[in-house]
Amino acid sequence: MLACEGAARTVPGWVASSIDLLEMARDAMAGALEDSLPADLRTYSNDAMFWAEWPEFAGIPAAVHRVAAADALRSGKWAGIDARIVSAEPRHPKR
Questions:
Q1: Which residues contact 66 (CB under 8 A, 6 or more apart)?
Q2: CA quadruple 35, 36, 37, 38: dihedral positive or negative?
Q3: Dist CA 65 CA 67 (whole Å)
Q4: How do strand 85-87 and strand 41-43 relate by DSSP bridges?
Q5: Does the pLDDT at position 60 exceed 50?
Q6: Which partner for 3 in 9, 30, 59, 83 could form a disulfide, CB atoms 3.0-4.6 Å apart?
């Protein structure tokens, strides 16, 4: 067990700030995705694809978006809205 987990040491401020930033980003993404229901909720397999589609979240890992999609799906289900999570297809440059 880490010292901060056993309350023997406090969590460094930069860690707490990073966690807050990730949580706020997840909440913002989940809200936007909920607003798009009942459409499919697209998720991204890597950060570059995610940042290309959601540039305002550049630097936030795509995994946070996948969690937000799951949150939005759950909220939709509670509201009686059928939706599904689908993998976003990579965009290929035109030849």
A1: 43, 44
A2: positive
A3: 5
A4: parallel
A5: yes
A6: 9
How far apart (Å, rounded) are the C-alpha atoms in residues 62 and 14?
A: 21
Alpha-carbon distance of 67 to 73, in angstroms, equals 10
**Number of domains making up the chain:** 1
- Rounded to an integer, the average pLDDT of 14-39 is 96
Q: How far apart are CA 24 and CA 39, in angstroms?
A: 23
Instruction: Give me the pLDDT at residue 95, please.
Output: 45
Show the domain range for 23.
13-87
Residue 1 Cα to chain centre, angstroms: 28
Residue 61 lies inside a defined structural domain of this protein = yes
